[in-house]
Amino acid sequence: MAKERRPLSGKVVAITGGARGIGKATAAALVRRGCRVAIGDLDLPLAEGTAGELGGGTIAIPLDVTDRDSFAAFLGEVDRQLGPLDVLINNAGIMPVTRFVEEADESIRRQIEINVYGVVTGTQLALERMLPRRGGHVVNLASSAGKAGVPGIVTYSGTKHAVVGFTEAVRAELRGSGIDFSYVMPVTVNTALTEGVSDTRGVKKVEPEDVAEAIAEALETGRVDVFIPRSLKYTVAISGILPRRWREAVASFMGVDSIIAEVPGSARRAYEERAAKSHSAGAEAGESEAEPAAQRDAA
């Protein structure tokens, strides 16, 4: 029997890294369902443009997920302008592509700060608001890389494994609290985050709108582990019972072990430069249009 869906109309939703990509598509999907949405982003002018485009009372608020005070101020503004927080979607993330032995310390730290610390901090701050009301939903954007080890994005894969494990653990700790948790694991998504990355054999890129609809469904149904496409869940389950050598052979056949590692540097240069600029610009005087991809999509 199909699970009865919970109405989302009127729910107050905060989305990190929501000015474009998956965040923007998710905001649009939730506005269509009657949610009151707040977009948090480093690039406030871009976020304001997105909010105006989406309408429905959507608001834009500056946010640096690596700064706890900034995150607390963001959620405080959501409470003040829209009302008590019902849903937090931790979407912001970065994905530099490089061989791990050559990866700069700054790249490693930045991924951990945004992809892991930002998720942990946002979840904790959201729970401070949700637990007294015994209601709410936290959605954390992981990745199919959070269920596999992907050459070329070793640190990124590690951060997404962390998001999966963290979400499972906090959910177990707070079972019976009235708070729902979901983590979202798409394959490669057609956003700036995956510039230059091609499809794996048998698995095509999905669109941001596909991820957005899956997130909306998770909010409506309470689904915990959200695979996109849904068939990925069965692929992961089957591979989990195969001997390691078979799993590695399948991954090699599909191109998982080379799809990222063999991406030409020129195909990623624009994204990597934007991500690098974001850190220096943000440390000095806040973010600007120079870094549109820096804390945008986590998948």
How would you briefly describe this protein structure?
The chain has 299 residues and is of the alpha/beta class. 47% of the residues lie in helices and 12% in strands.
**What can be said about the biggest beta sheet?**
7 strands, parallel
Kindly provide the name of the CATH class: Alpha Beta
- The total tally of domains equals 1
The Cα radius of gyration reads 18 Å
CATH architecture: 3-Layer(aba) Sandwich
**What is the strand arrangement across the widest sheet?**
3-2-1-4-5-6-7
What is the N-to-C succession of helices and strands?
EHEHEHEHEHEHEHHH
Strand content: 5-15%
Content-based structural category: alpha/beta
Number of strands: 7
Query: How far do the termini sit from each other?
Result: 31 Å
Query: What is the CATH superfamily label?
Result: NAD(P)-binding Rossmann-like Domain
Structural summary, described in words:
It is a single chain. With 299 residues, the protein is an alpha/beta fold. It has a single domain, classed as Rossmann fold (3-Layer(aba) Sandwich). A seven-stranded parallel β-sheet has the order 3-2-1-4-5-6-7, sandwiched between helices. Helix 5 links the parallel strand 5 and strand 6. The longest helix is centred in the middle third of the chain and has 26 residues. About 5% of the residues have low confidence.
Can you lay out the helices and strands and say which pair or pack?
Elements: E1 12-16, H1 21-32, E2 36-41, H2 44-54, E3 59-62, H3 68-82, E4 87-90, H4 105-130, E5 136-141, H5 154-173, E6 179-186, H6 208-221, E7 225-228, H7 232-241, H8 244-254, H9 265-285
Parallel strand pairs: 1-2, 1-4, 2-3, 4-5, 5-6, 6-7
